[in-house]
């Protein structure tokens, strides 16, 4: 019994060691660039700064956030037929390499388009709407939209159309991989979603 217990302890220690090594393995940016070029470039542009408003800009995004999204596309937790198909072919190493390569690319600035509506967007982003329990976006995504690595995504300069779509998807349950965002979006009107999306597009 003692020998059996010793073997179990040794096996557990080995598993923990392998897990730690896997987590500490450095991403290969060259492989990330190659995989990105083969799988992602058509929709997200050569440097991750998508020029199509329906497709998100990925440059300078927190790599932990990107890996999480790719894993959830692959598992089906986040729904999108195109992205689920793309993620299905990627290994965990591929995802990590691509994510860290994208994080190394500089995000291009965006811009707001509606001077009047953006005032409402700024109010919601910076202060929320306390009377309706809508939290300030800045509380999680930071005042300049930089986000918090491994927790909340970088959103400054993101296409307004993409942000608008995601908030609507959170609201109607089409996107269900973040309970906090679903709860916030559920309380927002179409106009408020459009306003905050436009404001985010112009954040620096």
TrEMBL record:
Q: Which residues bind heme c 1?
A: 40, 43-44, 83
Query: What is the protein name stated in its UniProt record?
Result: Cytochrome c class i
| Entry-linked SUPFAM superfamilies | Cytochrome c (SSF46626)
Q: Which GO terms describe its molecular function?
A: electron transfer activity; heme binding; iron ion binding
Q: How is it modified after translation?
A: Binds 2 heme c groups covalently per subunit.
Q: Which organism is it from?
A: Hydrogenophaga intermedia
Domain (Cytochrome c) ranges: 27-106, 116-204
User: What InterPro entries has UniProt attached to this entry?
Assistant: Cyt_c-like_dom, Cyt_c-like_dom_sf, Cytochrome_c4-like, Cytochrome_c_Oxidase_Subunit
Specify which residues bind heme c 2 according to the UniProt entry for this protein: 137, 140-141, 181
PANTHER family listed in its UniProt record: CBB3-TYPE CYTOCHROME C OXIDASE SUBUNIT FIXP, CYTOCHROME C4
């Amino acid at each position: 019994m003692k020998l059996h217990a010793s073997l179990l302890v040794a096996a557990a220690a080995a598993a923990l060691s392998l897990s730690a090594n896997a987590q500490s393995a450095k991403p290969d940016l060259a492989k990330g660039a190659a995989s990105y070029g083969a799988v992602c470039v058509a929709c997200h542009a050569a440097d991750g700064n998508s020029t199509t408003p329906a497709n998100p800009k990925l440059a300078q995004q927190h790599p932990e956030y990107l890996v999480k999204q790719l894993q959830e596309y692959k598992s089906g937790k986040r729904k999108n037929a195109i992205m689920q198909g793309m993620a299905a072919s990627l290994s965990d190493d591929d995802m990590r390499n691509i994510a860290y390569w994208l994080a190394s690319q500089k995000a291009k600035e965006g811009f707001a388009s509606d001077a009047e509506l953006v005032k409402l967007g700024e109010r919601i982003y910076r202060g929320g709407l306390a009377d309706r329990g809508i939290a300030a976006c800045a509380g999680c995504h930071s005042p300049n939209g930089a986000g918090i690595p491994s927790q909340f995504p970088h959103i400054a300069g993101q296409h307004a159309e993409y942000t608008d779509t995601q908030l609507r998807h959170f609201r109607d349950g089409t996107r269900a991989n973040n309970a906090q965002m679903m709860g916030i979006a559920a309380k927002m009107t179409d106009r408020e979603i459009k306003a905050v999306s436009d404001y985010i597009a112009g954040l620096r």
